[in-house]
Amino acid sequence: MNSVTAIPAAPSADAAAHFARRLSLETDCADVSAALASGAPGFVLLDVRGPKAFARGHVPGAVNLPHAAITAESLEGHPADTLFIVYCAGPHCNGADRGALRLARLGRPVKLMIGGITGWIDEGFALEGSGAAPG
Questions:
Q1: Which residues is 38 bridged to in the sheet?
Q2: pLDDT tens sequence across 52-85
Q3: What is the DSSP string of 39-90?
Q4: Cβ-defined contacts of 18-24 (< 8 Å, 24+)
Q5: What is the separation, in whole angstroms, between the first and last Cα of the chain?
Q6: pTM of the model
């Protein structure tokens, strides 16, 4: 026995429920990129970092709305059932969690793009903006 096998795996039904729940709350950079490339992604991609960070480089097609500025008023131009995908700098940043929480508290559908900008770059995707690193 080792540290991997010392604790048995969850029953399949529990594992299925767990992973389905995670996928209802999160998406990844590759899936976001593919959806954006389709031309009809079905969501609004929100970069919840500050305007200066956004200007330095962001995911193409993203809208900048800092998490502290997410309010009912700032969302008025979007139908109530609009799905929002949020991201921030990366795993070291909780801005996306803060943005997702604000959206959820406003009754808006939301998922977090895991990895944020760091994940986007790690996947080899290009950024857009004045200081954007090539992807």
A1: none
A2: 999 999 999 999 999 999 999 999 999 999 999 9
A3: T--SSEEEE-S-HHHHHH-B-TT-EE--GGG--TTTTTTS-TT--EEEE-S-
A4: 24/111
A5: 43
A6: 0.92
